[in-house]
Amino acid sequence: MTQLWRIALSSQEEISQELLEILACPACKGDIEYDRENQKLICIGECKRRYSIRDGIPVMLIDEAELPTDNRDT
Fold first, then answer.
1. What domains, with CATH codes, occur in the chain?
2. 3-state secondary structure of 27
């Protein structure tokens, strides 16, 4: 597990591409995308949950994830 965290941060507060390629959303198993501006990992799969990054460590806990908001025009 130590090696995984070595590749997690390529620089301070940056998630490495290598880590993004192996991470999956724990809720729906979808791919993950990094939102640099908001320091979140976003599921681009079915559930669209947003996972926080605290002290450079992704918090990939379903219970702590932000659920998507419905911004569709009606």
1. 14-64 (2.20.25.10)
2. coil
What value does the mean pLDDT take over residues 24-41? 95
Predicted local distance difference test score (pLDDT) of residue 13: 56
| Strand, helix or coil for residue 42 | strand
DSSP bridge partners of 40: 35, 52
CA–CA separation, 43 vs 17, rounded Å?
15
Q: Report the amino acid identity of residue 44.
A: I
Q: Please count the residues of the chain.
A: 74
Alpha carbon distance 50, 21 (integer Å): 17
Higher pLDDT, 44 or 6: 44
Mean pLDDT of 33-48: 95
